[in-house]
Amino acid sequence: MGAEAKPRYLPAGESALVVEFGQTIDPALHDRVLALDAAIAGARFEGVNETVPTYRSLMVHFDPGRWTMQALAEMLDRLETAHSPRAAPKRWRIPACYDPPFGEDLAEAAAILGVREDAIVAAHSGALFRVYMYGFAPGFMYLGGSFGGLPAELQISRRATPRPPAPPGSLLIAGGQALITGVAMPTGWYAIGRTPVKTFERRRERMFFADVGDEIVFEPIDAATFEIMSAAAEAGDLVAREDTLQDSNP
C-alpha cells in the first residue's frame, strides 16, 4: 500500500488549529484522528488546552501566547508520524425501542427507502457502530459503521426541511450516519426508535459514558421495558451494558 496522505492544517480563529485527514467517513481516517489525539494527550504540551476529535479531523485548541499556528502545525506534523496507539475500544450494548410511539419516523423512512419497517429495525439493531464524535448539542453521539458505511436499509438522505424536536434518546438516521440525541432538538434526520440511555448525564462520574472510538450495538426492547429502564435511567442508572469484548459478535 502507498504512503498515507499528509494531513492539512487549517486555522480556526486565533486559538485553534484543525488537523484534517480526509473528506470521508472512514474508520482508517478516524483511527488516525484518534492516534494523534492520544499522542497529544501523552505528550502533555504546555499551552495545548483541549482537543476535539471528529469523523475525519482533530481540532486543537491552544494558547496563542505560547504557540504560533506554524509552530504548532510543525510540532503536530512530527508527532502525527509516530501514530501513537490508542486504548482498545469498549463495546456498549444499548437498549432500543422501535415500537410506537418511539419509532416516530420509522414508517415514513421505510416508505422512502422502499423496504419494510422491520428491515430497518433489523439493520439498525444488527449493525456494529463506532462512536465517531460528539457534537452539535450536549450528548449528541454521532455514529457510523464500525467497518465502513451503514447498511443499505439505513441509507436515507436528510429531510428538505427540519421536523419538530426529537426527544432525548432518539435514534436518528440520515446522510450515511446514525445518531443518538442528548437533548430535544428540531432535526432533518429520521427518528426510527428511542433508547432510555442518557448519553449525557451530569450526575454520573463519567458524564459521557462512551468514548469516541468505542463500539455500539443496539438491543431491541419493547415499550413496557423501555418505561421501566427509563425510570431507572432517571434515577441515575446507566442502563447500557459494557461488553468485555470476549463476545466478538454484535
Automatic annotation (TrEMBL):
SUPFAM superfamilies on file: Cyclophilin-like, PH0987 N-terminal domain-like
Origin superkingdom: Bacteria
Protein name stated in the entry: Sensor histidine kinase inhibitor, KipI family
Gene3D superfamilies assigned: 3.30.1360.40, Cyclophilin-like
Organism the protein comes from: Methylocapsa palsarum
InterPro entries: CT_C_D, Cyclophilin-like_dom_sf, PxpB
Pfam families assigned to the protein according to its UniProt record, in alphabetical order: CT_C_D
Domain Carboxyltransferase span(s) in chain numbering: 7-210
Transmembrane residue ranges: 131-150, 170-192
GO molecular function ontology, one term from the record: hydrolase activity
